[in-house]
Fold each of these.
Amino acid sequence: MTKDIIIRFVGSAGDGLVSLGNLFSKILKKHNFNVLGFRSYQSVIRGGYNEYQIRASTDEVLSIGEEADIIVLLNKSVAAIHRVRVNKDAMVIYDNDYINLDELDYPEDIQKLPIPLANITKDISKLKVLKNIVGFGAISQILGLDETLIKEVIVEQFGHKGEEVVFTNFEALEKGDKFATENKWPIKWEKHKYEKAQQMIITGNEALALGMISAGLKFYSGYPMTPATSIVHYLTKHLPKLGMIVKQTEDEIAAIGMAIGAAYCGARAATGTSGGGFSLMSELVGMAGIEEIPLVVINSQRAGPSTGMATKTEQADLFQAYGISQGEFPKVILAPSSVIEAFNVGVDAVEIAEKYQVVVIVLLDLYLSEHIATVRKFDLERKNSRFAILDKPSEDYIRYKITKTGVSPRTLPGTKNGVFFTGSSERNESGTSIASTLAGLPETLPIREEMVKKRMRKLEYILEELEKPKIYGEKEASITLVSWGSTKYILREAIKLLKAEGIEANQLHIKAINPFHKTEVKEILSNAKEVLCVEQNFTGQMNDYIRMKTGFDIKHNLRRWDGEPIVPSQIIAKVKEVLNIE
Amino acid sequence: MSEEFNFTIKDYESNFKPTWCPGCGNFSQWRAIRQALIELEIPPEEVVAVSGIGCSSHMPNFLKVYGLQTVHGRGIPVATGIRLANPKLTVLVYGGDGDIYGIGGNHFLHACRRNVDIITIVSNNFVYGLTTGQASATTPVGTITRTTPRGSIENPLNPIATAISAGATFVARAFSGDLKHLSYIIKEAIDHRGFAFVDVFSPCITFNRNQTFNYFRERVYKVDDTDHDKEDFYAALDLSNQKFIKDNLPIGIFYQIEHKTTYEERDFTLNQGVIPAHAPLDLSKEQIDIITKEFY
Ligand code: SF4
């Protein structure tokens, strides 16, 4: 029998919601559940209204889910706000010393599970967060979780803080468990022995970072900006052991500038930010483009424009990425859809950048950057090789030699006979600027033409290396859903649910935005019965982009721009509307 | 290395001839940089010259070393990245007052503060030359330029005082009209461990009728000829303000301290002797365990 549960912790900033959510996700992972966790939060450091929702299943978890089975209310003010989000058959756990649900007008038919969390921990320790562990104990009773496995997670998490901390946590856990038993809390799943999990549990940002590291990333610079900051946090932890440099700079211009300098020197380099920082980086993205310096630039999209909604998700920077920086140069744009794909794109981005001496832009979105998911162990034991770098150039070496693929072998500073000049101006094959005293001369015109062509044709070769888009699901489906970025698996869940109702939908998901598989996309869309484009923005950027690239005009759209991830029920409703099904 | 070193000044010269107006102050720096590299016996392949945009920023075009011209104002962060990826290289940033004090001012401050071991030479001509004569961050109050037809109303930046207060460990000034002294200062700057900054009075003969060669010749005097203590922070600051008080202009080393550790020396990766540009790309089993432990 499939086990599938949604648990939602509701609290304020300062309630320790992230560590609590991460810890409980880990506990469920230990029990070999597939887990997905996402925090919906505000840009405040204390107070406010936040949710951390975890979904665990013996089946694959495609979305964070909608209606929570178990809700844990962490304080009175959020309890009042949360009332409208409670579904009828939810179990609601709350500290009855602080919260009175009757006063708050909670629906009658929910299952109220009061527990004096704070009071229980009073005689164990003064630590406030301990009450969360009591809560875990109580929930574990409902779910029939294995006490030994939970304790294992606690040891892993708090072991370094010393035995006393571990034992206090154990005690809190047992008290929660005991309270639930004594008060005859409902049992959802019977206790049984769990197979211990080998999976990893990781966020999109961390997976991307791991992918880049395994592809030999040696330099990363960034300026703090939600939701990209956790990439720096993760990388910084281990950098000396990896022979890697991570720098926080004075602004995003310096961040990309340093990364370019390092890349030019031979270190595989990346920088990351969100839309605002991405705007600041724009000019130097173009410089890396014309100087043919390999570089990975990550933009984790959040709701814009301008400061927009700093902690909310959106997919509205597609055209910003496509049009970034003045003039024309090859830019590769890849948008991973899941934690697993974030890892793979991390590897590919670093490799493509060096192989083709281009800028690779990785477009994430907040939901992908920040949600946590269980994945099979990543293969980090890669054998990397270097591309197009000359250690012993000949005496007549020239840096920007016109070649078939557009890639000219480069030398790294320090290499004898390899000395060359590069600049942000147009140049000839040897690197000399043709923008000043040579500009416009009759013999210069064909050089300019050839240099632009040389750079741009790299995209043709890169396109061949990228995985072609395919249809997921039944070929003959009544409707084809088009998606990009983190909505991919949310759509998959909708497709699964639709199928259960006898409605066949399939999916075309776009990962490579530039270069673009126009032939394949056009063919797939032309053969579809109906097409619905689903995206997290107002204007329908992917819809416009597909029309621009293929001439195919997608008729139906589902767009969400309120800052929260799209949910399967929205997609299902829209599909039914398009197909005229009641 | 000294026995093998047989490079001449020509070996540092690219075959792209300088495009500056004949008589421009930048020519002296072009000569002085090469002179200093030879005296220090640094072969061309171990030097990276980085610049931004402006007349003076064309410099790397005319040198036969690894050269990288960035966009306007961004030489310093790019140079910092180069130096961090390979601390064996000598990394020079060259630019004008518009490039480094104006649009790139933020990076200048932070490079001083970090004490990153690069050399920044600013060709200070008190005007925007390449864009044909507008006011810059160092243009004196009252100066008439194409963007200040009624005279500039902005106070000029004092680059020497700024660099000293921001934490640079080598702060000097030179004058294009004194090639010997200029080469000496640039040589000392390259030789310095830590962030070295040289502001060069470098007349723009086309767009600046005020700060001319003669103007400087009449006013400069050498710090070395005085009893200035270059390790004295406050004396250095005091000296840097003289130009604003009296009409005489000290050139030479205002401030230099050797005891402060550099950015590279403090870096937890670099201080293990790693050169990130050439570090192994593959992860060992042990490294994999360390970086993934938290995900299990
Ligand atoms: S305009 Fe001025 S600064 Fe520019 S090259 Fe001519 S003299 Fe030199």
Note: Chain A has a mean pLDDT of 95.
Amino acid sequence: MPIDTHPRRSLLSEPLLKARSITKSYAGVQALKGASLELLRGEVHALVGENGAGKSTLTKVITGAITADSGTLEVCGQQVARNDPSISRSLGIAAVYQQPSLFPHLTVAENIALALEGDGSSWTVDWKSRYARAKELIERVGASIDPRRPAGSLTMAEQQIVEIAKMLGAKARIFLMDEPTALLTDREVDNLFQLIGRLRDEGAGILYISHRLEEILSIADRITVLRDGEVIACRDAAEVDRSELIHLMVGRSIRSIFPKREVPIGDIALEVRNLRNGSVGLKDISFSVRRGEIFGLAGLVGSGRTELARTLFGLTPSDSTILLGGKPTRIGSPTEAIRRGIGYVPEDRRQHGVILEMGVAFNISLANLQSVSKWGLINRDKEDDLAKLYVDEMRIKTASVSGVAGTLSGGNQQKVALARWMAIHPRIMILDEPTQGVDVGSKSEIHDLVMQMAERGVAILLISSELPEILGMSDRIGVMHAGRMMGILSRQAATQSSIMTMAFGHACSGV
Amino acid sequence: MKFYKKEIAVAVAILGLMVVLMFSAPGYFSRENLTDLFLANAPVMIIALGMTLVILLGEIDISVGSVFAICGVVMGVAARGGSPVAISGMAACVVGAACGALNGALVAYLRVPSIVVTLATMVALRDGLRWQTQGAWIGNLPSGFQWMGTTQSHYTVLTVGLVSLLIVLTALGLRYLRIGRAVFATGSNRAAARIVGIDTQWISFFVFTLAGLLTGLAAMLNSVRFHQIPSNLGLGLEMKVIAAVAVGGAAITGGSGTVLGTVLGVILLGAIGPALTFLGVSAYWEKAIQGGIILGAVAMNVIGNHREKNAADTDPLPN
Ligand SMILES: Nc1ncnc2c1ncn2[C@@H]1O[C@H](COP(=O)(O)OP(=O)(O)OP(=O)(O)O)[C@@H](O)[C@H]1O
Ligand SMILES: [Mg+2]
């Protein structure tokens, strides 16, 4: 590390990291237009901006995962002439990318070891210490995941935790975190923030990207706002408030974030009685959702919310009875679920949601091909029209509807995943983290779309790790813990603390 | 992918070869030679269409050579037994589809990797055939066997028509049929395809069966050209076909590839061997040069992919 070999006094006041006038363009899109950023010692520097503003691109330029078209990068006052992920790692830069990228067939411990041991390790593998180290790092994030599990078997949130553990284990002084909390619940977020605080006190610099503005305002020292690839502002966090921040990001004001409207609640659309599913650890779950109702599901990471959604959608079928519109039904496969009018936006958009290699229109029409085809023949114009409708309505930022989904920014991919399922007009909609990675503006638009669905009489099951979202949107809230439904709270009875008590496994006097 | 980069690269290679031949071996473009070339490669083309679908799914089928042999022999035996050509041809197609269905069932429903399944069927079918025929060729075919007595030029026209029709149908099917979508979706991301209600197992089964059917059809077209059917037909055919699809730019990992690419791949590989003979390259070098060209074409694809990936970096570093 240059700083250790040339201990010059002036260096100490140098910023840890300086990115100057970075530009980067992709075919047809200018992702960064001369963005500059300074990261100081002992600071948490937040990077905010709308979906597609260029935040991830900037972090990837810093880690060397992609090469900028122009601009310079300095680490501790030393210019980085050539950059790639291994060089940046040797310069003391560690990163958590927006989407976990673990090796699915390797265990958690192996994944962590691969990232950390690298060079200089001995010829033999000390499995005991590998497991111990992995376990310790994961516990530091406040979670417990068996390090022997293959990474492919983890939920997205768990994978995110492993990525954070990987980053913590690195000997680094510059930490880049691209939406590390998009799928984490309060407990893990609290732990992460304590860790970040400790790193900051030790003099590290942390670049922190998130769309959760409350988090930003509570943890950041300074905030840089990106808009369309340009730095619009860099402020002390103490100087700005939420609405000003939104205004800077979006260039306009946003209406209420949770546009909850009273909707007449209809008959029971979905009822579950004593559902068990041994293979994914679900026990004795009973609840019902009515037409027009939004039923929120809260719980910690690993409490079984996603597993419940997958069971209801026929991905991990169980023998228990599910009543659809009062009729007992067994849903053995997604095909059956869709036929019965169930839609499902999965949590893991890269593995299960959008097909990255394919175009936006391909993705949006995929679950709903019959509406754009006749006798099995697809009408391409109709398909494009369908896609355009949603691209406009949801403000999906893409060059065209035939643009490859993998080139969209994370938040825009999420919108594509949502659009696909809105397009099938389901009677029951299961939304697993529908607004993960989506910026404030689009978030309120998505909330509005969800409300519109409810108004049309769709029964909605909403899973979210973001408590304000659950509290703001739901009519009733079921709280899960270790595969069980701990209780169901009415909108009036639910508070942040009552939910958290139950999420930790304590019964609560709900309604 | 948008601008058919890979396809253009193969087309340029073909053009280059043609230009060289034009100057150094104009005899290559004689009518007989071209007809011969076409007829020899028509079965490869038809099988390659099926293989394209299999590879788009992210699977592989190395049993096509053995299936081709069985279908040819079945056709000959049926014809010798007195069935009309149309019926024996149908028998070849049915046997092909049945072999494909066997592969498909094992891959889709028992979840055995396709390379293992088709390696097993390749060996088993080939050895079964050898044991049955004792290596003897099927001769004594009825006189009407060579395409119902039509002359060779009729046969050529028919084959041209059939092959073109199959190419167009496959291309359009992939583009405009719902099942075409399902193939791309399954090949790109099986889990995601399942969630949108695509029966991915059925799709695999269907594609393998279709590939088998096309192999049977190819065997039929091939058999009626001769008055004898060798029982060691189609040795090494799988490699020819897979190489053509790969040269055409289809990704062996599934989800990406075009019918146009496959067609160009078959043309390039089919044209090169005889071209080298025409150019007077020693037979020793022929295979090596052919291999070099395959390697070059595939390397070009891979490099192209990397460029695209670097631009797109959808993998392995996500947003
Ligand atoms: N590989 C690529 N090919 C083409 N365009 C790309 C590629 N990667 C990113 N882009 C474009 O660059 C712009 C910036 O993307 P980036 O991922 O940096 O956004 P972001 O600020 O991280 O957004 P989000 O909040 O949604 O994650 C977007 O318009 C995106 O579509
Ligand atoms: Mg991003």
Note: The pocket of adenosine-5'-triphosphate (ligand 1) is lined by residues A 26, 29, 31, 49, 51-57, 98, 397, 407-412, 437, 439; B 311-313, 319 (CB under 6 Å).
